[in-house]
Design brief:
- Strands 1, 2, 3, 4, 5, 6, 8 and 9 form an 8-stranded mixed beta sheet that branches.
- This protein has helices at about 25-60, 70-90, 130-140, 205-210, 225-230, 300-305, 345-360, 365-380; strands spanning about 100, 125, 145-150, 195-200, 215, 240, 250, 270-280, 315-320, 360.
- It is about 30% helix and about 10% strand.
- With about 375 residues, the protein is of the alpha/beta class.
Length: about 375
């Protein structure tokens, strides 16, 4: 859409916030079978809500009786969380999720001994495009989820700047036919807003936060904790989404400075990097990404849309081999930070590695740009 052209990355031409739409064709067939899908979707959604209630009662209620014995409590809660999460993924149409441990060079498959085994206090760093990867992470690792807390949400709207060059022009430079692709207007870079800390949240709260923005520090009752403070006392792995909000899955948003001045390679704990890829939508299957929230019971509307799909949904997950992680003793910092200074070198390395293993592009837009994008999208002066 033309009115959102300011939120198209000038270097890649990618718009990372709008919901992907399926290509034209076969709409009449999809419309004809939609009543059947809606009926099935209503039943599946009701079952998913029942699973959420079971999770609240069993995992966050009954399992508390095992709290005096922490190892037993972790094992029991992980068992129930894994069962309920995988069943939920199955109900929305993700019958099989391919997972591959790869090396970054040419995406080669890692040796068999390269296994992913995050432990208490380790970090799992991932891109964020939906609540689906949250459920998958809960299924596999039962980790601790954290949400970012920002200084403020008062982000100025972007302004066009004729002096900023576009780094790459898509298409041939003949000016005719398919090569006559209009490039987005350049604009001034968005000012980074500091992430002042994090807050621990439950699995259901993390799912409900998909698509939302970081919370300003003045709107929470408790003081935000640093990531290191949360990690150092964690009894499970900690999941971090450095983009701080969801994209539409077409590219990696600019990573926020969430790790601080961590010395590389990281020695105090292990860093595990993963990248989730979702297939483009079709007339029979909507997008799995969830970049824009629903006004009522987010993301229930998206869950119903996926549950109403008659075709199987697909996604893939690629895990970086631990031997090439920033916490590996053989990690070569010079391959990623060749020149210049970085306020958060670990975030920069994680972004570069994630882009390589996931074969996705990085854009210069960050969560701060999504603040003004949503302001325009919703037609309101404030979010």
């Amino acid at each position: 859409m033309e009115k959102f052209s300011a939120y198209r990355d000038p270097g890649t031409g990618i718009q990372p916030f709008l919901r992907p739409i399926p290509p034209s064709g076969s709409e009449w067939t999809a419309t004809a079978i939609s009543p059947f899908g809606y009926a099935i979707g209503a039943v599946k959604t009701a079952v998913l809500l029942a699973l959420a209630l079971v999770y609240l009662v069993v995992v966050q209620g009954v399992c508390l009786v095992f709290s005096p014995i922490p190892p037993l409590h972790r094992s029991v809660t992980h068992l129930f969380t894994a069962l309920l999460s995988r069943l939920a993924l199955f109900l929305v149409g993700l019958y099989w999720i391919p997972v591959e441990v790869v090396q970054r060079k040419r995406g080669r498959t890692a040796p068999a001994q390269e296994s992913w085994n995050p432990r208490a206090g380790d970090l799992i760093v991932s891109n964020w495009a939906s609540w689906v990867e949250v459920l998958w992470l809960a299924f596999r690792f039962n980790p601790i989820f954290v949400l970012p807390v920002c200084e403020t949400l008062d982000v100025p709207s972007p302004t066009k700047s004729a002096a900023s060059p576009i780094s790459r022009t898509p298409g041939r430079r003949t000016g005719t036919g398919s090569a006559a692709i209009s490039t987005p207007s350049a604009r001034t870079p968005t000012t980074r807003i500091p992430i002042v800390g994090f807050r621990r949240v439950s699995l259901l709260s993390m799912i409900a936060s998909a698509g939302k923005l970081p919370v300003p520090k003045d709107s929470i009752a408790t003081k935000a904790e640093t990531l290191e403070a949360i990690r150092s006392k964690a009894d499970r792995p900690v999941v971090v989404f450095p983009e701080c909000t969801t994209s539409n899955g077409r590219a990696l948003l600019r990573f926020a400075e969430v790790f601080g001045d961590v010395k590389l390679p990281v020695m105090k704990y292990k860093v595990f990097i993963m990248c989730v890829r979702y297939d483009p939508p079709t007339a029979f299957s909507p997008t799995l990404s969830h970049s824009i929230t629903y006004n009522f019971l987010n993301p229930l509307g998206h869950i119903f849309k996926l549950a109403s799909t008659l075709a199987p949904l697909t996604c893939s997950i690629r895990l970086l081999a631990p031997s090439e992680s920033p916490s590996s003793g053989s990690f070569m910092l010079s391959e990623f930070l060749a020149g210049g200074t970085y306020a958060d070198p670990l975030a920069e390395c994680c972004a570069a590695l994630m882009a390589q293993i996931g074969r996705v592009k990085r854009v210069g837009l960050g969560w701060e740009d999504k603040v003004s994008f949503l302001r325009l999208y919703r037609g309101k002066s404030r979010i």
